[in-house]
Amino acid sequence: MRSRFQGALGLALVLPSIAVLVLLVVWPAILAVIRSITFVQDGQTIWSTERYVQIFTRPVLYNDIFFTAYVTIISVLGVLLIAYPAALYFRFARGRPVNLFSTIYMLPLFVPGIIAVYALVRFLSERGWLWSLLTFLGVKNIPYISYTATGIILAQIWTHLPFSTLILQSGLQAVSDDMVESARDVGASWFRILWSILLPLNLRSTVIALTILGIGVIGSFTIPFLSGPSAPRMLGVTTFSYLTTFFQPEMAAALAVTLFGMSLLLSVVYIVVISRKERT
User: Under a CB-based contact definition with an 8 Å cutoff, are residues 259 and 218 in contact?
Assistant: First the structure.
């Protein structure tokens, strides 16, 4: 009797969060799928995947898909290459400089995204601060960074770097100092410790950080809208344009479903990696 009561109590506690998930995520996703395949002709409703065919056959749209994937992959790799060494430093280094650097490093977490993007655009754009400095130093033929894929990637890295570092650092905190010291006592190099101990034991946190980062970049709007090129564009900006500029909500729904599918692929990768890790 008591176990049944505890089970019912647990279900009652979980139901509100499940209801919110269904109402705000699952149900809108179902409606978007239905709307994306619905055509009304002569008063009759027709079901067709024509809009998805257009997405993957029209050069403008599939270029946006490839552009979104490219920006996501490069941004994720860039964050990983910077965040992991930083997490290692904050985890194992000692002294006051570490506290100072970690405080400065986390400042982007407290800066609103739109302000950060505007500052980066002003810094990287033509006649911006970086351009003026390089011109003053005599540098010629300065490449354009703002309003390009490079500008989006730099803004994504700057925005997502602190949070990804926090996730990686929390995973490294779970690695015992005794394990690392024992490996060093038997002559293991830092590279050997990193490859054989830290990376495998921190795999879960790494996959979580990369998944959250990848989904965030794929679905981002503010950064590519303010700092990206006019063409090709990331799918979030393209979806917004079809909804507000071209007044095609059905095509916007199809693009949103495509975005959801790309995010779902990252979630599948996360589930596969974590499930394999738990079986080993």
Answer: yes
At position 92, the amino acid (one-letter code) is F
What ranges make up the beta strands (E) of the chain?
38-41, 44-47
Task: Give the tens place of pLDDT for each residue, 11-50.
Answer: 788 888 889 989 988 898 899 999 999 887 777 788 888 9
3-state SS class at 38: strand
Distance separating alpha carbons of residues 280 and 278, to the nearest angstrom:
6
Q: Are 146 and 226 in contact (CB under 8 A)?
A: no
Q: Of the candidates 165, 66, 258, 213, which has an alpha carbon nearest to the alpha carbon of residue 223? A: 213
Which single residue is written with the structure tokens 């505890």? 6
Q: What is the bridge-based pairing of β-strands 38-41 and 44-47? A: antiparallel
Residue 7 reports pLDDT greater than 80: no
Q: Which residues contact 118 (CB under 8 A, 6 or more apart)?
A: 226
Tell me, yes or no, if the pTM score tops 0.90.
no
Spell out the residues 6+ positions from residue 122 whose beta carbon is closer than 8 angstroms to its own.
Answer: 128, 129
CA angle 30, 31, 37 (to 5 degrees): 95
Q: Which CATH superfamily is domain 57-279 in?
A: MetI-like (1.10.3720.10)
Q: What is the mean pLDDT of residues 120-128?
A: 78
What gap in Å lies between CA 71 and CA 160, rounded to an integer? 13
Cα distance between residue 250 and residue 34, in whole Å:
9
Question: How far, in Å, are 19, 107, 143 from residue 215 at the CA level?
Answer: 23, 22, 29
Write down the mean pLDDT value for the chain: 86
Helix 249-279 to helix 50-57 angle (10° resolution) is: 80
